[in-house]
Structure formats: C-alpha cells, structure tokens
Amino acid sequence: MVLAAVLALTSCSSVKHVPQGEYLLDNVTIEVEDGDDVNRTELYNFLRQQPNHKVLGFARLSLGTYSLSGSDTTKWYNRWLRRVGQAPVIYSEEATEASVRQLHQAMVNSGYMDAEVTATTDGDSVRRRMDVNYHIKAGEPRRIESVGYYVPDPELRKLVMAEVGRSELRPGILFDRSVLDSERGRITRSLQNLGYFRFSRDYINFTADTVAGSKLIGLTVNVHNPSISAPGTAAVGDSLLTADLHHHSYLISSVTYVVGTDIDSRNAATSRRDTVDYKGYTFVYSGDPYLRPSVLRQMCYLEPGEPYSAAGVERTYEALGRLAIVKFINIDLQPAGSVGDIGLLDATIYLSRNKKQSVTAELEGTNSEGDLGFGVGLGYRHRNLARGSEEFSAKFRASYESLSGKVDGLINKRYSEYAGEIGLTFPRFMCPFLTRSFKQRILASTEFSLSVNYQERPEYTRIIAGAAWKWRWQQKRHNGVRRQNFDLIDINYVRLPRSTIDFIDQIAPSNPLLRYSYEDHFIMRMGYTYNFTNRRIPDATASTNFQPVITTLRASVETAGNLLYGISKLTGQKKSDGVYKVLGIQYAQYVKGEVDYTITRHFDRRNSLSFHVGGGIAYPYGNSSMVPFEKRFYAGGANGVRGWGVRTLGPGRYDARNSVTDFINQCGDIRLDLSVEYRAKLFWVLEGALFIDAGNIWTIRDYETQPGGMFRFDSFYKELAASYGIGLRMDFTYFLLRFDLGLKAHNPAMNQERWPLLHPKWSRDANFHFAVGYPF
C-alpha cells in the first residue's frame, strides 16, 4: 500500500518543477546497427544527458522525492527534500547534439571509423516529456593486421621485444585506442622498472598504415629517443640527457633516511641531527631516533648500486605505510651525475612520527531481558614499543549484571565478568628460518596475543583463556588484492573451577553439545585463510571508477589436536575415559574447511546483481567424536538464509520448537549457502534490495540429540531451506547500515509447514535483520 502510494505520487508529480515550455527527459535509448563487437551498455557513459534514475526500471523515487518539495526554499524541509532527491532532467537540444558527437568519437576510438550517429526526438506537449533515440550505424570496423615495433635505441629494443609476449596487441583485434593506450602504459611501466627513470609514455606513439579499400591496418609501435624538447630532459642537475639523445638507465647511488618528529621531516636540515651509516644506508635523525636502522633498511626496496625501479618506490611506500609509528612519508629522487652512460640517483626518504601512545575508555549500560547491568572498559596502545614500530595493546573490561532485575541484585545475586587481553604486533615476518629477501617479498606482520576471561555466576565459575601466534600478509597485483593469514598456533582453554552440585546434569542431562559449553575443554589449532578480491581502490584522478564485475573469494582450512595426539602416541600416554588428555582435560581433534565465492555484476552505477555460493565441512576424528560447539556451522541470520533468525535453521530436517532450548542443537558439520541479491540505489543514502536465499547445515554423524540432521547425498537437496525478501540499506560511504526483511519460502523441518510461500503467515515466516555491511 505504501509503495503503491509512493509510486502514484511520483508519477503524478514528475513535471512539477519542469518550467513551462520545457520537457522532462523521459526515456533515452541507443540502437546500434551492424556492430556485433560494440558494448551498448558502455555507450551510455558518453551521453551528456540521461533521464532521472528509475528503480526497477519504472519508479523515479529520487525525482519523486525532489518533487515533494515546495517552491519556498526558505523552509528547511523543502531544502532537505531537494538535497536528498534529484532535480528533473530538462531536455536540452545542445546536450543532445553534444551526445551525438561524443558517441561518434567513442565509436571511432573503438575502431569504427565510418560510424554514423543520428538522434531523433519524440516530444509529448501534453505530458511535457521528451524521448530521445540515438541510432548508430557502425559500419565495418578497422582491424589490426600486423604489429611491428620501431625502437632506434638498440639497448631499449632488446628490453621492449623481450616483453612483447605480455602485450594486448594482436593481429585480428579491433583498432581500439584504449588498447593502444594500455600498450603505452605497459611499455612505460616495464622500462621504468628496469632503471629508465626519465622514461615516460610521451616517448611512445603509433603509426597506422592502411591500403585503399581495405579495413586492415598495419600497426607500428614507435618508441622514440628523447629530444631537447621532450618531457623531463631539462631536469636541473641531470646533464646526462643533454650529452646525447638516447635513453639512459639509472642506478641508485645512495639512500638516505631523514627521520623526524614534525610534519615535514625536511626541517631536520635546520635542527639538531645525528647521522648513522648502516650497511650502505645513511640515517639522519632529527631529535628522537625512534626507529632502528635495521628496521628501516628492511622496509626499503631501493638498493644502493642497483637499477632504479618504479615498483621499488611504490613497494617502499607500501612497506613504510604499515609502520604504525610513521605518520607521513615522502620519497625524493634527484640526479647525482653519471658513470659512463649510466645515470645516478640519490634517494632521500623523509619520515615523520605519529603519536606513540594512546588510551581509551568506555562505559555502557545493559538491559538483558530485564536484568540490569553496566560495563567499563580501558584500552592502552603503544605504537613503538622497542624502536621497531612494534604495536603493544592491552585491554581490560569488567561488567556486572543483576540476575533479579533489580539494582540491588548487583550486590546480592549477580553475574560478573572480567576480561583482559594483551597483544604484540611486529610489522615483519618473525621467523628465524626465513631469509631477508623472502621477508621483503612478503609484507607480513606477526601477532602474539594472550587473553583471559573470568565469569562468575551463582551456579558456576568459568575461566576462558587463549594464546596465539599468527602471521598476516597482503599482496597487491594488477588483477586484485590477496590477503593471507596463517595461524601457527591458536590455543583456547576453558575451565570450570567451581559449579553447584549437579549443575551440568540439571541443564543438560543428555545433550553433549550443551554439556560441552560448561565442561573443561582444550583446543590447540592451526589454520590458514586466503582472501582475494579484484575490487579496485577508487582513484580520484581516474576518469571513471566504474567496475562492471567484482569477484571475491575466501577459503580457509584449519586443524586441531594433531600435534598433541602425536605426542600422546609417542610418549605412550594412557587414555582416560577413552580419550587422551592434557592438563587433565580432553583436547579436541578435527579438520575444518570453508569456501565462499561472490560475484557482483554492475549494470550501471546504480543497479547491480550479486551472486553468492558458500560451503564448508568439519570432521572430528582421533581424540574427538564431535566437533567443538564453537567450531561448528550455523544457519540463518543476517548473513545466511534470511527467512530464519540466527541459529534457528537446521540441521537438515531437525524440528526446532523452542528457540531458547533448541538453539544449542541447531549447529552442524556441513554448510551450504546460495544467494542472489538485486541492489538499486534509491535516493540520498538509501539503497533497496530484493533477495532470494537457500541453504542449510547438516551433521556428519547421526547424533541422538539432532534427529533428521545427518547429511545424505540422496536427499540433502530436498532439505535446502529457501527464503525471499526485501532490504533497505543506508550507505554512508565509510560504513553501510542494512535492514533486511526475510520470509520463509520452503521449510525442510519435520512436522512444520513445508511450503510457507504457498501459505504465508507473518508471525511465523517473517524475520527482521539489522546488520552492518553487505551480506556478501
């Protein structure tokens, strides 16, 4: 009803703010004749005018919002409606003619030299709307018949021809100027990484030879020698280029770090300085020598005596940017004479310091189903513990909660929790067996952490402790970013030193999952996680940041208990209660793997379709008959099948009736998720979404407390739950708030309505979710 009213309102008021005698640009279409290789969608980017955005192809919500405003702009609500909405696009004949020229140029740049572009209009004076149709007769395109290279400099020619295999230029492709521009960039990057500091793309152009009556082109890539008027040849202090007109490679003559405490470390020249020479590098300290020379040397990819490399400069920026104590970085390269035909460069790296220490505090109040409580937290961070940008962090939190719903319960009957955590992060690979070259190739950080959590209730006291040694690293490539985590050791220890008599038997007399949460247990795991995305970082200098297809892949594997099990076997340890124990506690042994893949297709800047598929499996063996509860999978929730609440779906056909008592059983060893989601920007920061989800979890074994939950190949597809729904998101650029409403479509649970889609019931089938960020 509300949606229908909004659509009716926007339809009736679309021309409210269109001046008399003018037309609202209603529809714009592009027709391409004889252009099989033409991307019609991309052609819309060259139009000077496009209609107001339509949601789902028909509803102009942003224009409707603007049209709700009145003519009195002194009133705040009229200004607000205009700010969050979109003004009507008024048809312009001049813009249409400019669009014709732009489309023609785009076709020519794509190889269609004989393309013809015309525009026709269809105006409705009563409805005050205008439709524009652009008709493109593409004609036969020009194609590249052969590719040759003209490089008069013999040394340069060897280098260029050695990299020809990486070129996108191939006989038979369209004579596309974007491909030519890409080739210029490829050659320039290659030569700059091989020492040619002064080389730029301006030295490269192309010669196209054609034969009358033929659409084939013989292409020659010209890499010219420098001239007096060429860019960069008049650099102060660089006399090498005026000696002859050839390209010269450069060596790094010296590398000097200027390490200061102010915003511009170059002020160190006028302040007190201490100079240190270390393994061929010079370090100039202005004031506090807060970083050791050995640390800075490892973060530098410019080596004295080695050829200049543009990639080395970028890599140095990236490595130094990972140091928490460093605030600003600037690398300055200056010519420093020559040795024969080889130029020399002096590299100076300026650093300024960030704040060393910071303290945070937080205070919060809680109300958990009527139980009042409060919590306080303190945090401390040191960004440079031992002059190597080692980050030390410490956190402490205390919370109290009344179990009677009254304030005096904080003194008498209460739940209290104390938690502490310390961590130490090194901005490098901390491993004695790795060489310096390997550590430089992999920009890794090493994390050590210890944590303890003390919980006290009238029924029990529980202690949860943990320790970890982890490595994190990231690799940027031309096709995406790869992030990898390797958890060398991660220990989780839970102990109940005190509990009331028969407490566990009372809450879980026959449920091993629930008992597990309140019994002593020990997990020592090792894990690896791989993340890949081809999402580009927005570039403010780029003409467009539009990316049609974005893919994301996440894969992880972990295993636990193998080392302890091997030690138990080798030492001849005797089993207790049928299992091996450490510190008197049974340790878990299992293997677990997960894979999630997402692909998002952007039709334009406002509409996209995203697909997601994910799965995982966990298998207990050896010292365990069941995977630990916290390591098992769950279904439902804001990032799963959204027709169900979190931990209220599965496993398999399991019939859950009580979300409080059954949630402990709604976990499994196998996970499968499938989702598709359409996303559309509405107006202001609002986005809309339509989604369909499917999936479930299963157990590997037939557990008595989870009937119907075991995975079977011949029937698992019948047990896939399905849901559908709508979503509203608020995109504030740096974070996104998500509100999703999911409804059940197929429910695999035994003794429940199997097809809620056919017999919907709001109280039974609807679930509302609030989350931060997209679901996938």
Q: Topology, please?
A:
Blueprint: H1 2-12, E1 24-33, H2 40-43, H3 61-67, H4 76-84, H5 93-109, E2 116-124, E3 129-137, E4 143-150, H6 154-162, H7 177-192, E5 204-210, E6 216-223, H8 240-243, E7 250-259, E8 273-278, E9 281-286, H9 293-298, H10 310-321, E10 326-339, E11 342-353, E12 357-368, E13 371-382, E14 391-402, E15 414-426, H11 436-441, E16 444-456, E17 460-477, E18 480-499, H12 503-507, H13 512-517, E19 521-533, E20 549-560, H14 562-570, E21 581-582, E22 585-586, E23 590-602, E24 607-620, E25 670-681, E26 686-698, E27 721-731, E28 736-746, H15 762-765, E29 766-772
Keywords summarizing the entry:
single chain; 776 residues; alpha+beta; 16-stranded antiparallel β-sheet; 15 helices
Write a brief caption for the model.
This protein has 776 residues and is of the alpha+beta class.
